[in-house]
Amino acid sequence: MNCDLHCHSGYAGGVGNISLVDIEKTMPLKGIDIVGTGDVLQKQWLNTLKSSFAEEGSGLFATAPEANVRFVLQTEIIFTSPVGEGRKMVHHVLLFPSFESVDLCRELMNKWDVKLNIGRPFIKCTGKEDLTRRLYNIHEIDPLIESIPAHVMTPDGVYGSKNPVTSMKQFYGEGIDIINSVETGLSADPTILGQIPELDDFTLISNSDAHSAQLHRMGREFTTLNVRKNDFPSIIHAIRDNHVCCTAEFNPTEGRYFLTGHRKGKKGHGDRYCMYSPSFTPGGGKCPICKKQLTIGVLERSQILKEAQGGDDRDWGYRPKNSPDFVHMVPLVEIIAYTLGIRSSTSKRVIGTYHNMIEYLGNECAMWFMNEAEIEKRLIGNVEESLLSNILMIKKGDFNFSPMGYDGTYGRLSIGERRDIFGVREEHLIGGQATLDRW
Ligand SMILES: [Zn+2]
Ligand SMILES: [Zn+2]
Fold first, then answer.
1. Closest to 251 in 3D by CA, of 196, 191, 324, 314
2. Which of 4, 28, 120, 157 lies 20 to 30 Å from 356 when distance is taken between CA atoms?
3. Does residue 263 lie within any of the structural domains?
């Protein structure tokens, strides 16, 4: 069962409008069976969900019995708690078994004076003990509520570079005991998380964190769970017992926080930027352009955490026992746009080509699990040759993102050759004129 358990509605800050109808149209094309509602604690969205879903006893919901997508009641919240000199904000996913448990959670948060008119409510804590107590309070509502640290490696994740910690316990305290899994996030995959020793005890799952129903956002990451039944408790048990068959991941170098650096347009930067693999980061982590602290990327954070947790013997590529199989995916609309030389992944011609391809593939996810011969058999003669050859090159791993993702910017797709992720040092120090170093 393909699950994308972390999404957003139109009520999470600065995002497009997502309707349930859009999601129900998109998900079967992508091949996703189960999807998170997003923002379920937000009043208007909650009312929309309550009035749209037919009652079901399984803890999974649908707008109609014949719909082929099922929803899980889900939100992201933000825990904030003092760490070091500052206050650390950590994004966190909650899954609920019923509307009743959602209502009770809203009541609890109202008592805490949490503002519930936004998609991602803030839970302000005075420290680890307070955070632990609140986490337990939430879980006491219903033992099937599940708590998942979101996109753990990004700046807003528990391992992120803002007010950094070197272990999850430093932030969650004893509350860590009721956490069973972590979300990989777009800039990390099981290889990167395999570098961090304490994660050997957690299930790794992957979700899209989509803020729009567009084809390159929804289901761009997902988890294939081995479940006994099609119901909410089975999903939760599969997460708790690590019955993950596979996660489908972004290539981490496409994610917005893969390398360390400062993007262009940042204050004091103009069109200048800089980006580094871990061993090239300037001393003190200071930006050579604006002299401020660089945004430390996921790759570098993984190496810092590995060292801090005594994982020095873990070579790159080390995979602990708990680590699921995974595939790297590039959103198919991005491959089409790249091949056709069109800038926008949402252009009519790109979408038309996409729908045509899905007729031969069944759905998009299925393609990433097919071998090259099978893809060729289905697409040859049915799509442009250059498109087929680009897809096959990506399947082989002959592609890269150049520049890679860094400081909030997605990586830019380039098909044809691999690139060494540890060898990047790019500094565009002079406005308008690039001084480019690349090893
Ligand atoms: Zn988030
Ligand atoms: Zn800078």
1. 191
2. 4
3. no
Ligand 1 centroid distance, CA of 102 (Å): 19
Among the listed residues 51, 53, 50, 26, the one whose alpha carbon sits nearest the alpha carbon of residue 40: 50
Ligand nearest to the CA of residue 294, numbered in listed order: 2
Amino acid occupying residue 72: V
Domain with 217, as residue range(s), is: 2-254
Q: How far apart are CA 106 and CA 40, in angstroms?
A: 10
What is the distance in A from the centroid of ligand 2 to the CA of 289? 5
Looking at the structure, tell me whether residues 104 and 20 fall in a common domain: yes
pLDDT number for residue 437: 41
| Residues, CB-to-ion distance under 5 Å, ligand 2 | 262, 287, 289-290
Here the tokens at position 183 are: 């979300």
Give residue 310 CA to ligand 1 midpoint distance, Å: 28
For CA atoms 15, 20, 24, 25, the dihedral sign is negative
* CATH number of the CATH domain containing 119: 3.20.20.140
69 falls within a domain: yes
Q: Three-class SS of residue 249?
A: strand
Compute, in angstroms, the gap from residue 91 CA to the centroid of ligand 1: 5
CB contact at 8 A, 389 and 335: no
Among 90, 187, 166, 172, smallest CA distance to 139 is for: 172
**Which portions of the chain are predicted below pLDDT 70?**
13-17, 430-439
Query: How far apart (Å, rounded) are the C-alpha atoms in residues 80 and 25?
Result: 36
Ligand of minimum distance to the alpha carbon of 427: 2
- 63 inside domain: yes
Give the model's pLDDT for residue 439: 31
359 CB-side CA count, 13 A: 7
Closest by Cα among 329, 339, 403, 397 to 366: 329
Which ligand neighbours the alpha carbon of 407 most closely?
A: 2
**Residue 88's pLDDT is what?**
97
- Give me the pLDDT at residue 67, please: 87
Could you tell me if residue 433 is inside a domain?
Answer: no
Distance 266 CA to ligand 2 centre (A): 7
**Given this model, what pLDDT does residue 16 score?**
56
In total, how many domains does the chain have? 2
388-393: Cβ within 8 A, 24+ apart: 390/335, 390/338, 390/339, 390/415, 391/335, 391/367
Same domain as 249, residue 130:
yes
Ligand 2 center from residue 91 Cα (angstroms): 25
Q: Which two tokens stand for residue 389?
A: 């050859």
* 76 Cα–ligand 1 center, Å: 7
Report which residue type is found at 331.
P
Q: Are residues 10 and 158 in the same domain?
A: yes
CB 170 within 8 A of CB 227: no
